[in-house]
Fold each of these.
Amino acid sequence: MRTIDLTPLYRSTIGFDRVASLLDAMASQNNGANAYPPYNIEKTGDTDYRITLAVAGFSEEDLSIESKDGELVIQGEKTSPASDASDPVDVLYRGIAERSFERRFKLADHVKAMGASLKNGLLHVELVREIPEALKPRRIAIASGAEEVRTLNA
């Protein structure tokens, strides 16, 4: 496997060190270790997004979602099933993975997790991007030579 040295990128950029860090982290990840659980990222509106994880066999009590410092962390910890004396079952083949996991997603600026739901073995995490009014683009009128120049009050 090839390794990529991004050190020159850190030296030649000013203010883009976060981008270089993200590229460095992506290059160093082991893809096989991050394959469980599978997930989709969907755009559901102009500023709305959804992350859907396949978490078959997990209940709401087994899952935790935390948003902190621009990162969304979804953890699942499956406790060992309690043996039910009325329904003794010997599992001959276990194909449904119910192992513990931790998935981390880097969130863009101004993206917030609004809620989550668990339905039919799929965990849906709703995200919305709320840009503050001060950062939204605004149109500035151009005054002609005969008109008085007006200042914009924020």
Amino acid sequence: MTTLFISDLHLCAERPGKLELFKTLLQGSARKAESLYILGDLFEAWAGDDDSTPPHGEIISELAAYTQSGPKLFIMRGNRDYLMSQRFAEMTGGQLLVDETLITLDGEKVLLMHGDTLCSEDVKYQVFRRIVNNVFSRNVFMLFPYAIRSEIWHKIRGAAKKSAQKKSEDIIDVSQSTVEKVMKKHHVLCLIHGHTHRQAAHEFKIDGQDAKRIVLGDWIQEDCVLVSDKDGFRLLRIDEYLAYS
């Protein structure tokens, strides 16, 4: 059985090539997989489940067709699409996951996260995240008409982008101590996340035991899929996966 993981696609009208690649994946080899996990930031921006900005409707239709073909779809909110709700899951036929979700792969417990909470050195971002990403704040924000909500959301995103450009690379990357803390909390030796756009597989020790942290790459410059099957984990470009499968 094959399980696929992707993250940080940032799909939008300005990147039509990535949208076509995503559609190729969903309509082709990914249908042979048992499950597909999208670990946040599927969209460049998402102002709520009534956000009809192109190509959002097309993406939802593609995901719905994918789940109707058989595989299971699991979607986690990211920092770009934290306003996703159960309605989005219903529209796509997928299941909405909370951050810090545990699954089992080949008998091993694996922790799934978007990854932004691991960047604990970025104190200002963590404060901002706690404010905007709690249930009460989301519910209040969704009371605004879509036009106003969309305008506010894009201003927030623009300000956040400018702020991130001024921060050092170390601050916006994950904290190893936070990584180990959350892995110990869930009693796991394997963590998969996105957010940082720094595709890699890191190996280290937790209490003398071999542990690993797999970081999914983004789809802005290149693209990435993590394949889990009988051969273990492999980080591949989408074209590599399509050719391999």
